[in-house]
Amino acid sequence: RLGLIIQVCCARTCAPPCGMACHNAFLAVILDEGTLDDLDRIANALHESPSEMLGFPAGTEVGFDPMVKSSLHMTFLFFGEHLRGLPSGELRQVHAAIQAEVEEASSSAALPTEPLRFCGFELFPPGKMNLVVARFEATDPLRTLRSRVLAVCKEKGVSFPVSYFASIEGEGAWTPHVTLGKIRATRTEVGQASCGGGISALAITRPAKPLGITLLGARPPRAWCDWDAALSFGGEAPGADASPGLAPVAGSAAEAAAWAAGLLNDRPTCDAAAESKFRQFDANRNGLLEWSECVRLGAHLAALLGLEAPHQAKLHSAFAAFVRSTPGRLSEREFARFFPALVRGLLARRRGGREATAPTRPRPAPGPGADLTPAVLDARWAELTWRHEVVEFKGATECRLGSPLGCLSNFFAEAAFDFEVPLELCAESLGISDEQRRVRCAFSEKAIMLCKAAVMGDRATYFKVAGAEEPFEAKRLGKQVEPWDDNLWFETVCSVAYTVVYQKFKQIPACSSILLDTGESLIAEATRADSRWGIGLDKGDERVRRPSEWRGSNVLGWALAEVRAKLRQEEGPRTWVSVWTAAIALATAAKTDCCW
């Protein structure tokens, strides 16, 4: 079965409604479950001992961030960010044209399913060499299909990143590969790696079988491997739903209610339904849904469920709760949240329960981060164009070196604290008690991943994170949180950062002394590997002292500075304790030798 999963959303840094795609985009080949299991096993093994298995010189410090199994994919055609500036209307046309070509090719010849031979591992892409990939041999049917898709893209004026494909139309230009994860090391070290070492002992024992093709964003949907749930992108006429699962429900009201319940339990289908309904009821074709159009939508959905139209006052209350960007109108991104809320409220009425058209959803906890997002921080840093005093630290590296500034890192694991997940951050579906919201944390990375699971309502992962004993283990588990809503995390991440940092430094006096001794300087997590929690620049870079040139939001540095101010306010005049005294106190508490 063929289809394309379409992801079009607004970039948050633009003034909505911008109608621009903000994902990297690529076509990917769906692989069989057995191959995915093999690749997942190898990725986890690389995570455990990356230096040895990648063939780095002895003593080289190198990390490896593995892809989780649900995100593994074989790259078929990579667009990079070259679709970023394409208006959403034109992007849909490109999607539809690609889908038509894929479907035509599969109708004239069976979808290429002959096994793909495994050819080994290598570092990719040329020049960067920061990704570990499993390489496969392309088959003639896949090459033929790819050339046809390329022709469509060329006709539509789609461009490609030259760094990934030196000659995208030349022979041998395409290297079918599955990215297993990203190397964390210097470019010089990466250039010396042989990418052989111990990986060969974990070679894939079976050929890969392609099952289908899908168009993905930079973050593949968590359920993308469920190919039966993939929806074709159709150009249905206004007033009609042609996509599977979206047709008007025939039969009894009970059957309609069952359909609605199934819709809410299947995230990809619900997202596709929301997109279809938005296009159906956006009469002005302006990318905004007016209040009057939402009234018609409410009546339409109520009719499907065998109900009277929702009460206007309650409908308007729900409508207003989701309007953020343009007063009185919903953008497509906002509608993606409003739609399931409306269906859920109508379904509650159908079952005779309380009408909840605006369900409780996680929200930022009270505090400095309540109204902040990384985009707001980006704007603040951009205004600081002159040189500043900046306390820079490089996360886990400071911890390994025994630096006093290591306690600023989320990976610092020398002093524990009792963390309580704020009730505001807990999704309704999490279903945990007040006691279960309190967890002993030996490092703040664990507290952050607890919040991530709580916000998304992932109960199973929440308890796995609660049992994590190492920072990298907690981080790995955090990547498995599902279902994932990047917009929701974007809205709450600043609140999470402040909450975690405050509880940690409030309870560990030695750490708070080191934080307070940073004076009035800006604080920056200096690593180019993290553009959200850090500044996207490495420690020692001359641009570190000029915030307007930062390449990241520095969420952690902002939170540390806010907590520093809060602690000063709470403690008042304090007895001065040197940074070294505080560091020695930490080492003593952890029963370790003080090496600084």
UniProtKB/TrEMBL annotation:
Gene3D superfamilies: Cyclic phosphodiesterase, YbiA-like. Signal peptide: none annotated. InterPro entries: Cyclic_Pdiesterase, EF-hand-dom_pair, NADAR, YbiA-like_sf. Pfam families: 2_5_RNA_ligase2, NADAR. Coiled coil: none annotated. Residues 404-568 form the NADAR domain. NCBIfam families: ribofla_fusion. This is NADAR domain-containing protein. It comes from Pyrodinium bahamense.
